[in-house]
8-oxoguanine deaminase (Bauldia litoralis), 447 residues
Amino acid sequence: MRLWIKDPMAILAVGAERGVVVEDGKIAELVGRGSSPGKPVDQTYDAGRHVVIPGLINTHHHFFQTLTRAHPEAINKELFPWLKALYPIWAKYVTPEAFRLATRLSLTELMMSGCTCVSDHHYLYPDGLEDAMDIQAEEAGKLGIRMTLTRGSMNLSEKDGGLPPDTIVQDEDTILADCERVLSRYHDPNAGAMLQVALAPCAPFTVSKRLMVDSVGLAERFDCRLHTHLAETNDENEYCLEHFGCRPVDYLEECGWMNERVWLAHGIHFNDDEIRRLGRHHVGVCHCPTSNMTLASGQCRTRELEAAGSPVGLGVDGSASNDNSNLMESLRHALMINRLTYDAASVSHLDTFRWASEGSARCLGRDDIGVIAAGKQADLGFYTLDELRFSGAGDPIAALVMCGAHAADRVMVGGVWQVEDGQPAGVDVARLRSEHGAAAKAFLEAL
């Protein structure tokens, strides 16, 4: 079926003033000003009320943390004390049932904000949660959203001088065996893939060097991406200097991670030379503005990273350091913190859209999503400007960021409507809120 998405109020694409034609899950044609589709269409959707953008792509998250939003033990803390407060609670209460609800809620919340592709860095493996990646694959499939299953890991616990409790880490052999299993079962490197897999040792202070190095070998064998936290705080830099005798980027290079398969979360505390080196190797960086402000971690040097050659993507980060899973909100935060870092003229709303679409797609190693162009996947977000906050807005696309849009009216993934009239298909939102809220109550018992 050929569907003409006709005459949008505005669209974030060049030469598509009259919309796009979708066929077989892809964008078949851009319809420019004064034109009509080149071939007959089977159906027309009037997009006159909508601002249309590429589907947003979230490149860093921790779904399980939705269960400890605004937790009394963790608010008003920076990263290391925040982790120390929450690790014991997560270790005790993140059951498979709670994890499934956290995954379902996070995916739903992200999609309702306009996301069409997500990555979740899951590194927590208490006994019983060995099938975490299978749970996430199933939930993403039910919702109809694209996902990179980011198989995280930790193998250094308190007994080894690390931060996490002994009960939530796994040994190297167990981790590597499951990474291979997940890659064999779920990784689809083809264009249009609904599921892909990345390998993601958590951070230098929670994993061994062997795990970092062996993950590179698996990634090369299966042609997948690599992900980790790096240079999020000054504490991390000091840890690396004390334990490895070098800064985080030097350690990354020692482990064989300076290549274009890699994207890093946060990437705040890089010096000029490190930015040049990362850019030369096209290492991506996921900018997490909301989390970085919440934990007072610092400000990502987005402009310098992009100028050096590093793709910059966008992520909401964990829902206990952001307290929601709304990527559209993070675009506004990215604009504000980057204007504070640089100036008002150097960073525009278009930069934030680029980070959340094209940049994020590059971080995930995908060239089939992230832009509205012929031949790309039909992953689209549709927003109305009906709320009071938008009244008086002159530039509809800028208004989404400047006026604070937070919910998509419609979302299309691979040519299929997955959100209509603000509601995700097949999801009882009220029931999900009730069930997830009930599961989260257990995490307050720790008080």
Observations:
- The first strand starts at residue 2 and ends at 6.
- Residues 2-54+375-424 form a domain with the Urease, subunit C; domain 1 fold (CATH 2.30.40.10).
- The chain has 14 helices and 18 strands.
